[in-house]
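Q: My collaborator sent me two sequences in one message, no labels, and asked for predicted structures for both. Can we handle them in order? The first one she listed is below.
A: Yes, handling them in the order given. First sequence, followed by its structure tokens:
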Amino acid sequence: MKIEEGECHSIVYVSTVIAQLGEAALLQLLRRARCANQQAGITGVLMYGGGQFMQVLEGCPAAVRRLYARIEADPRHSLLEKLADGPLPRREFTGWHMSFAPLPAGYCDGIPGYLTPPQMAILGAGTSAQPLLCEFLEHSSQRLLV
């Protein structure tokens, strides 16, 4: 599906996986996600490290909400916490049907404003993901596997 300009929506979430994923499992997950996201017109970035995911999904509102509902129902996730959910003036990851950045254990601990999923649950979902995402992308852009 061609990515169309127009109404754009984004959901950003973090979650903890039930069981650690090895490199082969991550690559398989990434291949499936890229194919499905391209067909649905969804772009974004997936970050994984230390058993935690952070993902940005963007696209038409209905497609993004459908995908997030599938993620919510996926038994591989626990402590799923939505960080942001709303309209975007434009896509931030145009052409990235799902970029992927592997994170070494403890990587996010050094990022100002980083909260673990349990900390997010305590504070509530009102925290903006934008500063954390910008900081992450600034420090890891050379490691993104597009």
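Q: And the one she listed second?
A: Here it is, processed independently of the first:
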Amino acid sequence: MGLLSNRIGKESLKAGDHIYSWRAAWVYAHHGIYVGDDKVIHFTRGRDQEVGTGTVIDFLLVSSGPTRSTTPCLVCSSEEATTTAETNGVTSSCLSCFLAGGALYRFEYDVNPALFLAKVRGGTCTLAATDPDEVVVRRAKYLLTNGFRCYSLFKNNCEDFAIYCKTGLLVAEQVMAVGVYCVSRYAGDIGNRRDVLKVEVEDLTAGLASGRIRPANISQLATPGQVQVPAVTTLVAA
């Protein structure tokens, strides 16, 4: 990983990589998980999950997903026909459509604090360690079928989705705003927070789908034996 850029070539990709590409003149990045065979699973706004703020945030939200080409992609059209992306927000695209003409970057994990703080931009690396690649791919594919959660810019966005696939970690409340840097960014990194839990993907999706749990607290979905901390907001039974 370079100090100023995580840019890579397509030949360097491997299944399980968390990748991203900048949108809107470097204002915002779209994130996803490369699962091999030139496919990327990523999270975007599904139908009936549009967010209208009346501010520049609306422009960022539109920019956060891949740009639709006027020429239909046969690969992605086939994928969309076999998924429920319009309702759960998780979709599969070919790498080209995901990049939408942008450059390819790899999100880095388990970086040291000095390098983390030296990075010019947030949203490019984390102190947290990644799980094995095969686990990452399994989570992404499972969520493609079963869904994640309702799209929001400040929590449960495309970056949260990719980080969850890589680590299995969920944060109680996504309190960090876009463009927060240095000490605040360091304190808010998922690898440095105390209010995170390891949540099995099957538990996450089953509870949300059944309505037994709601996005209020997540401690009931914690891995058995995991230490709880008072700051954690958990998913609780309805």
